[in-house]
Amino acid sequence: MRRIIAVFTMLLVFVTTGLCPRLPCCARSAWALSVDEEQEIGREFMTQIKGYFSFLEDDFANRYLNGLGRYLLAQVDTQPFPFNFYIIKDPTLNAFAAPGGQIFVFSGLIGALDQVDELAAVICHEIGHVTARHLAQRIEQNKKIGLITMAGILAGALLGGTAAEALIAGSMAAGIQAQLHYSREDERQADQLGYKYMSGSGFDPRGMESTLQKIAKGNWLGSDKIPAYLLTHPSGPERMANLEALLSGYKGHSLSPEAEQFRKVYPLFRTVVMAYSIDHAQAERMFRADLEKDPASPLPQVGLGILALEKRDYPKAIGLMEKALEDGKDYRLPLLTYLGQAYQLSGRDQDAVRTLKESLAEMGENSTALYYLGLSYENLGQYTQSAEIFERLAVSPSARDDVYYHLGIGYGRLNRLAEAHYNFGIYFNRLNQIGKARFHFEKAQELSAGNSALAQKIGLLLQELEKVERH
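The structure assignment produced for this chain is given below.
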């Protein structure tokens, strides 16, 4: 009966509005927002929310979340675009999918979830919204107002709170915002897809129910306010009943090796997120209380070690991370990076090189380990090695500005002056110090005789500087 009612509801929407929801298995409807348009809105959306939120930049935490997301995406038949997963440093219980395959999870929600199965449930639900193109359907209805304007309105609709007040102004925007929220039918379909992805991945889909129950309590922050997740993902007895019906057919099965590894490392991931996201005094009290309960646990030591790194108390950070390594064999590889970072920042560059090389040999590409390894090589006067590492980092779109500064240092010490000035120019250009950038690019151009490829790149950058200076 429920299935008949759901089908009837979808047909009624089609008849009364002329719109037909696009299901993942259906052919693309004539009116649906194009993938390119959705990605354009997604890029503008990212620009909007970066003005209001801080993103967690920790390499291990982001690798874990994106690795988990990619593992879950293996269950998706058709992916309309590449997916990316981000952690927002905010205590709100919230997560959402933005246009273009961008999925955001708030640190407050991660702190509330005890098991990786619960986090996987949230991610699978959001993937379900993306693959069903729910936002694309609603954006299409209002596309005439402009994609950039829509990105701001959409950001307010999904974020709520003070960010929404800043991003949404005027009765037209408020009216459109109301149309952008997910419907009960959207939630039903996202839950069905989430259940499918969870079951296929080897995680326990009952995490869908326990997660929703935790969020529905809404008391994690000591507030009577409705959690943001429930404002954008409507819940209620009907949705819980639908979930119970889905889960009633679950018989259970063994975890895959990949899912088992994600489950094993999840407590460390959660600890790292909390250490970087919670107020330092509150986090220290929490980790010390955990350490008193279980002095042999490596997790509170890692949390306290990260806090010590943040406070630049490097000897203390080293002691805590070394102890955590002794007690936490399951977390060895990520802990090597934190320990190597502490060694480098404390001036123990030989120890940093040994530790970070071990981490990279076993863990693979790791931008944090590479960055601090490059700094240690530079401090030790091994400029060929440092330049090689910073070149590897420079190819990333998210490369730190000072990567180019350290490349300039390395090439300068190697007497490769054209490349040194070229990288100093990029560094100052990224800092918007146009005069200094022009000086270094012009010096690089003078010194680049015989290197036509470098001279061509410098010429293009100088042309871009001229455009900036004219405006």
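Interim note for the steering committee: Residues 1-31, 167-178, 219-224 have pLDDT under 50 and may be disordered. The domain at 279-380 is CATH 1.25.40.10 (Serine Threonine Protein Phosphatase 5, Tetratricopeptide repeat).
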